[in-house]
Amino acid sequence: MSRYIVRMPGPRFTLDRSSPVPLYFQVAEQFEHAILSGEIAPGERIDNEIALAKDLGLSRPTMRQAIQVLVDKGMLVRKRGVGTQVVHGKIRRSVELTSLFDDLSAAGQKPRTEVLAVGKVAAEEDVAHELQLGIGDDVWSLERLRFVGKQPLAVMHNFIPLDVVDLDAVDLEKTGLYAHMRTSGILMRVARQRIGARGAGADEAALLGEKKGAPLLTMQRTAYDNAGRAVEYGRHAYRPDLYAFELTLVDR
Amino acid sequence: MSRYIVRMPGPRFTLDRSSPVPLYFQVAEQFEHAILSGEIAPGERIDNEIALAKDLGLSRPTMRQAIQVLVDKGMLVRKRGVGTQVVHGKIRRSVELTSLFDDLSAAGQKPRTEVLAVGKVAAEEDVAHELQLGIGDDVWSLERLRFVGKQPLAVMHNFIPLDVVDLDAVDLEKTGLYAHMRTSGILMRVARQRIGARGAGADEAALLGEKKGAPLLTMQRTAYDNAGRAVEYGRHAYRPDLYAFELTLVDR
DNA sequence: GACGTCAATATGTCAGGACAAAGGGTTGAC
DNA sequence: GTCAACCCTTTGTCCTGACATATTGACGTC
Fold this sequence. Notes:
By secondary structure, chain A is of the alpha+beta class. Chain A has seven helices and twelve strands. Chain A has helices at about 25-35, 50-55, 60-75, 100-105, 125-130, 175-185, 200-210, and strands at about 5, 10-15, 45, 75-80, 85, 110-120, 140-150, 150-160, 190-200, 215-225, 230-240, 245-250.
């Protein structure tokens, strides 16, 4: 195993060329850590690509690729003729292709799920349209109520084509829908989301402990796999006092 | 001017090497067009990078860069050992660093803006915190009401540090805040958004033609420039029957 | 002293080549 | 007939090298 330790003006970087982790990614990771820890301050300029590449024993394209990762994350900004500088230390993780369950788990909370109904139903027009099926075709319908602590947080209604997964023998109160789909070999690559708001219906209000007509945050999501096949369509409603969507935008 | 016309299995691509537009971008644009027009169908596999590069008279890195642009947009998916295929023909433009004004203008609508109040106010705690200022420091405060057609769509309240722009001599009913900031040399590169919902207050309700307590879609945004300086903080409320946020997520 | 010009600097773009790794299909042994 | 081993295809990673272009600051001229 060849292992280089490089000393730089600011941080110390370690490269492991025997690792399966790509070199550009190793560099990006350590740069990110140095920025997040404040070792490199926002506004500060980092060394130019050529010098960095030379110091680390890398080629310039590889060094550029590493920097590009952080530029895409919105942590660095490049300016031709000037250099590359740190924009902002604490970038929140951008909205990703994860579920509320994942989000809460990552936040260290203990989400609880109550399955209200699972079964096959005939697809209504909008469901059929989103899932690229015919109207009236059978699809899985899954209604769940999500709690955080003891408080009801969201009602979630998902529709899934029958040939994507089998929901019969699954304990969806424990695994989470997305986790189950992933372990079933369904790889979701692209999703379209629509975030809006509306007043709570009577049934939703009862489930969420709100009054009828109370404002709810809504999200509709259609997820597609590698082949462009629609594999999931969900309509969710969140209590706005407990949940909001955060995202970081980067202009490129 | 050298101009090559290349014939391919599917589409015909044109490269202009004398153009200031980068080659990889020219290729990406034409690929995108071919996909959006349906010339290349979703699910279809495109030629491998090496063949494409050869056909177009480009190097493989340049060809890869072109494909990468569309992968980042979520239109193409790469699989090692397999190939690159079209995921989804109609990707909506992802949420970008633009304003509602830009969005509506692009959609061909005629947005109208009514400035409710402009002036300097002492920053409250949350405003000061978001803009990295001291509590009580003077900031620009701008309240506007946005119409689409004759219908009120959103109330927008923006706060801007005094040293970023001068709002006194500006006709904000015509230009739009973001457009004015751009022409003032303010380049916004990163923004953090938080999307939620709540009930309308009495004043908002009156402005938007809704009842008090009616559900509103809310968005808070803090925008930063190249140097990581906070240049704008906005609190907006939208009528949910007229507006929603759409975004496309790509898992990478 | 003001202004235009030029050089230094740094990123942007592009070429061409090499090997590694993953996925899928084929072939072969049992 | 089944399953493992092998090979082919294609993308992933990395290298060296070169020129273009935007920005800044220094220098020189007027």
